[in-house]
Specification:
By secondary structure, the chain is of the alpha/beta class. The chain folds into 5 domains: 213 residues, P-loop containing nucleotide triphosphate hydrolases (Rossmann fold, 3-Layer(aba) Sandwich); 190 residues, 3-Layer(aba) Sandwich (Rossmann fold), CATH 3.40.50.300; 78 residues, Orthogonal Bundle (Arc Repressor Mutant, subunit A), CATH 1.10.10.10; 60 residues, SH3 type barrels (Roll); 120 residues. The chain has 28 helices and 25 strands. The protein has a 7-stranded parallel beta sheet with strand order 3-4-2-5-6-1-7, with helices on both faces. A hairpin with a 2-residue loop joins strand 17 and strand 18. Helix 7 runs parallel beside helix 18 and helix 12 packs across helix 13. The protein is globular and about 80 Å long. It binds one DNA strand of 16 nucleotides through helix 7 and helix 13. Its EC number is 3.6.4.13. InterPro entries: ATP-dep_Helicase (IPR052511), DEAD/DEAH_box_helicase_dom (IPR011545), Helicase_ATP-bd (IPR014001), Helicase_C-like (IPR001650), P-loop_NTPase (IPR027417). Keywords: ATP-binding, Helicase, Hydrolase, Nucleotide-binding. It comes from Methylovulum psychrotolerans. Pfam families: DEAD, Helicase_C.
DNA sequence: GACCTGCTGCGGTTTG
């Protein structure tokens, strides 16, 4: 037996004797920093607690050591509810907690869709100990046991939310907030909420998310444990694409597959093979299609050399047993394995630590990049990140985004920001009215009918939909009644309508999010394929599909069909890296990188050379001093702001009568008279900020979330603009631009 | 040309 935690720890002495004994037996020499800090705060039980600490720094124990101490000291029927975004995480935590709880005679009950009904019935008979549950299962539990919640959770002492960052700013997060609020209401008291995460950019916003009405103070704990050392390299590659007449022709045998690969893709995969072979690693190429492509290439190299395969794919469309095979390969000792994966392996599942991370193209966000990096670095060793930036070979009429090396510059910006521990601040201003509809229907089930005024008070007045005034709520009730979702009895009670009954009685109701729907692209009666829509689409909007450029003719929201025609003239702009929404902070850092002159130490020689060329263009075009560029038939505007500002600017210019489009780096405004654009911008600068609802009037695809189709038009517009626009940011940009009184060159 | 997450109750069959 090793020595007890020797540093005369006050926190250690606060723990139950039996837990102290378990700590000795586990051979811990001391408590970790997050644990030292969390134990007194959680035992006090009079505040919420947010714990931010790196992976493997004992977050789970920081929460559960004091919580179990508390359960042991109170009456036998007390319990704690642990809420997780993943079933896999519940299964992992169950194994970890069982070891400790068995000796304490505290039961641990996992509860999610794969758990047998008998286990759930047993917990309901004796609701004590640790309940590990998903938001969806908790929703089902509240709806089916509304009358018995006081009896079930009378002994509830704490709510624990794991991986808090995975919930913030999402419709599922809104549901989680509402579930916790409904528990407080049912028990007529508050229960302390404990949140755990490794990548919280803004601790105050995290605490505000954990309890939106701020009725209870929050204790914020940031671990002082030194983070792991990082080794970072950004590699540049020039891509020489193949001149393919018909991409369909390349769906064929292996030889065709090989031929269909661009030179850059092959260069990257050869470098991956050389560098990663012999150790465990994760490769993130951003899409399921790319996962398949790189996994097949790397596996092929192993076969060619007669070596056992070391490369395994992992993504959400793969069958469960295929995914488990990859996870098993990563966990197996003595045999190296690298997973090529999507965000499925970004968090949660225990795969052991890996030696390095490879990121192909830009990561979807800085926070995501950091989360991926956290999976690398064995005990004491540095975490290693290699970013691969693929840039197009330039031609006489290459688009400016290629010339300015958008991919490379964005990757570099993401790395610099993550080294500073900067993460995108979450947009906690999104209304998520889709989830309001779900929660209203759930409340009716939970209470067996509810008065309209009470429903507003629970959900909006005291609850988590604080931005919804009474008149909007009434508007929503009327619309839902019109659609047979709700009925109101003569006594004023809200009940499910005929259609609402069907919604609520299907098991798919419990999830706040929907499986992604795709739109079918049609040209002249022929289907070109299907794609999900994440950008605003209006008549005339340009789309890239199947390697060609199209213009939208019409959009049928019910049938999910977009009619298009070929766009006229011009070269295809290249939207490499996707159209993922980029934050203000990332675009500002990109501008900064382009305006500097010194080489960047973590870029390889190719990347630095590409960057120097881009910087030269940036200077010669005067983009450093003037964000407006007059060209033939158009003006290009470079605000260096995030996509919410860019979307807003494009819509404001459209309202002023121009044809304007957000292309990511710039807004392209069609005109033969640049002076007119400048006059319009001056006009917008001296006008008050526009009404966001009016701005999106012409946007045809305003449905973002699961039940948005049930919203009245006015609320749908409000909801859409709250998620996609930044009117204040756009207006401020235009005012600053106009104040400079330059005219376009 | 993003990506990911989650799901009840019941009836039938099989197994201990």
């Amino acid at each position: 037996m090793s020595a007890s935690p020797s540093k005369a720890s006050d926190s250690f002495s606060l723990l139950d004797e039996r837990i102290q004994r378990w700590i000795w037996q586990s051979g811990w020499s001391e408590l970790k920093d997050a644990q030292e800090q969390a134990i007194p705060a959680i035992l006090a039980g009079d505040t919420d607690v947010v714990i931010a600490a790196a992976t493997a720094s004992g977050k789970t124990e920081a929460a559960f050591l004091p919580i179990l101490t508390r359960l042991l000291s109170t009456e036998a029927s007390s319990c704690v509810m642990y809420i997780s975004p993943l079933k896999a995480l519940i299964n992992d935590q169950w194994w970890r907690l069982e070891g400790l709880c068995e000796s304490l005679e505290i039961p641990v009950t996992p509860w999610h869709g794969d758990i047998a009904g008998t286990k759930k019935r047993n917990f309901k008979k004796s609701p004590t100990g640790c309940l590990l549950i998903t938001p969806e299962s908790l929703e089902a539990l509240l709806m089916a046991n509304g009358h018995a919640l006081q009896g079930l959770f009378g002994g509830l002492r704490y709510l624990v939310v794991d991986e808090l960052h995975a919930f913030i700013g999402t419709e599922r997060g809104k549901q989680l907030q509402s579930l916790m609020h409904r528990i407080d209401r049912a028990l007529k008291r508050f229960t302390p909420r404990i949140a755990l995460s490794a990548t919280l950019g803004d601790m105050d916003k995290a605490a505000a998310f954990l309890r939106p009405n701020a009725a209870v103070p929050a204790t914020v704990i940031k671990s002082n444990d030194a983070g792991q050392a990082l080794k970072v390299l950004v590699k540049g590659f020039i891509d020489y694409p193949l001149a393919l007449a018909d991409p369909e022709a390349w769906v064929g045998d292996d030889a065709d597959f090989e031929k269909s690969l661009s030179q850059g893709t092959r260069a990257i995969s050869e470098h991956l093979f050389k560098t990663l072979r012999g150790s465990n690693n994760l490769v993130f190429p951003n899409s399921r299609g790319n996962v398949e492509k790189y996994a097949a290439l790397l596996r092929g190299y192993c076969e060619d050399l007669g070596l056992p395969n070391e490369f395994w794919p992992h993504h959400g469309s793969l069958a469960k047993d295929v995914r488990e095979e990859t996870e098993a390969a990563l966990k197996a000792k003595g045999r190296p394995a690298t997973a090529v994966c999507t965000t499925t392996l970004e968090m949660g599942i225990d795969i052991g630590s890996v030696k390095s991370i490879a990121q192909i193209g830009c990561a979807p966000s800085v926070a995501s990049l950091r989360q991926r990096l956290g999976r690398s670095g064995r005990r004491g060793e540095a975490a290693i990140l290699r970013c691969y930036a693929l840039e197009a070979a330039l031609a006489p009429h290459s688009p400016l985004s290629d010339v300015l090396r958008e991919n490379l510059v964005q990757s570099t910006a993401q790395v610099r920001l993550s080294l500073r521990s900067w993460y995108e601040p979450p947009n906690i201003g999104g209304l998520h009215l889709s989830t309001l509809i779900q929660q209203l229907l759930a409340l009716i089930a939970q209470y067996g009918g509810i008065n309209a005024a009470d429903a507003w008070a629970v959900l909006c007045g005291s609850g988590v939909f604080l931005g919804v005034p009474k008149q909007d709520f009434i508007l929503l009730l009327r619309e839902l009644a019109k659609k047979d979702i709700l009925i109101q009895t003569p006594t004023g009670l809200l009940l499910h309508g005929r259609v609402g009954e069907q919604l609520v009685n299907h098991y798919s109701f419990y999830a706040a999010f929907a499986a992604e729907e795709e739109f079918r692209l049609v040209h002249g009666g022929k289907t070109l394929g299907a794609l999900p829509l994440s950008q605003p689409v209006e008549k005339g909007t340009h789309l890239i599909f199947a390697g060609k450029r199209w213009q939208v003719l019409s959009l049928d929201i019910e049938k999910k069909v977009i009619a298009v025609m070929p766009a006229l003239g011009g070269k295809l702009p290249k939207f490499d890296g996707g159209n993922l929404p980029v934050d203000d902070g990332v675009r500002e850092e990109m501008r900064q990188i382009l305006s500097e002159t010194l080489p960047i130490p973590f870029l390889d020689s190719t990347a630095n050379q590409l960057l120097q060329e881009a910087r030269a263009t940036f200077q010669s075009m005067g983009l450093d001093s003037l964000p407006l560029l007059a060209q033939t038939h158009c003006v290009q505007l470079f605000p260096w702001r995030g996509d919410r500002v860019m979307n807003t600017l494009a819509l404001m210019l459209k309202q002023a009568g121009f044809q304007a489009e957000n292309t990511g780096l710039s807004i392209i405004i069609k005109t033969d008279n640049p002076e007119k654009v400048f006059e319009a911008l001056h006009g917008l600068a001296v006008s008050p900020p526009p009404d966001p609802t009016a701005l999106v009037a012409e946007v045809m695809n305003k449905r973002l979330e699961k039940w948005d189709a049930l919203l009245p038009a006015e609320l749908l517009a409000k909801n859409y603009s709250s998620h996609t626009l930044d009117v204040a940011g756009a207006h401020e940009f235009i005012k600053r631009l106009a104040a400079r009184r330059h005219s376009p060159r």
